[in-house]
Amino acid sequence: xxxxxxxxxxxxxxxxxxxxxxxxxxxxxxxxxxxxxxxxxxxxxxxxxxxxxxxxxxxxxxxxxxxxxxxxxxxxxxxxxxxxxxxxxxxxxxxxxxxxxxxxxxxxxxxxxxxxxxxxxxxxxxxxxxxxxxxxxxxxxxxxxxxxxxxxxxxxxxxxxxxxxxxxxxxxxxxxxxxxxxxxxxxxxxxxxxxxxxxxxxxxxxxxxxxxxxxxxxxx
Length: 220
Prior knowledge:
The protein is of the alpha/beta class. The protein has helices at 3-13, 24-36, 51-62, 76-85, 97-105, 117-125, 142-149, 168-174, 188-192, 196-218, and strands at residues 15-19, 41-45, 67-71, 89-91, 109-111, 113-114, 131-133, 157-159, 179-181. The chain has 10 helices and 9 strands.
C-alpha cells in the first residue's frame, strides 16, 4: 500500500487499536478479535515480547486484509525491522527525526508522538503524516486537541491516552482525524481470562461511537 492509501484507511476507520500484551501469542489473538470486530487496522507495540515475530505471523495470515502497525518504535533500526516484518505504519511515543526519515524513505506512514505546540510543529515539518498527541488525557483531553487545532488546522492529529467509549466522539469533534485506543480496548484482565470475545464486542462499540460522532458532525 502507498502512504496515501494507508492514511486514507486509518482516517476512514477512525480508530487505531493499540495492542500491548504480555506475549506475542496473546497479541495475535487480540488482533484477530479486533479484525472480527470490524476494524481492519491494529498496532502492536514493541514492548510485547516477540513483537516482530508476531507482526510477521499476522502479515502471513491476513495479508492485505488488515493493516498492521508497529508501536513504541524508539529508533530507525526498529522501524526498518518492523517494516520488513510487514508493518505499514509506525507510531512513536516521542519525537525522533531520524525515525521519521527512515519511514518516509520507504513511503510508509509515521505517527510520531508529541505534546507541546513546538513538538507538534517540529514533527509535522520533519515529515510526520499524523502527529500522535501523547499523553493527551493528562493535559486536557479533547479540549487540548481543540486548542492545538486552533493554530495548526493543517496538522492531522491522533490522541493517545484518555480515549475511551465516552470520550472518543469528543476527540473527533475536537478535530482529531482518528483516535488511538489502548487498555480501554485490550486490557490485561480480559487477556488473562482469555475473553477475546469481549475485545471483539468492544471493537464494535467503538466503531458505533465513531459513526455516531461523525454523523453528528456532518448533520446526517
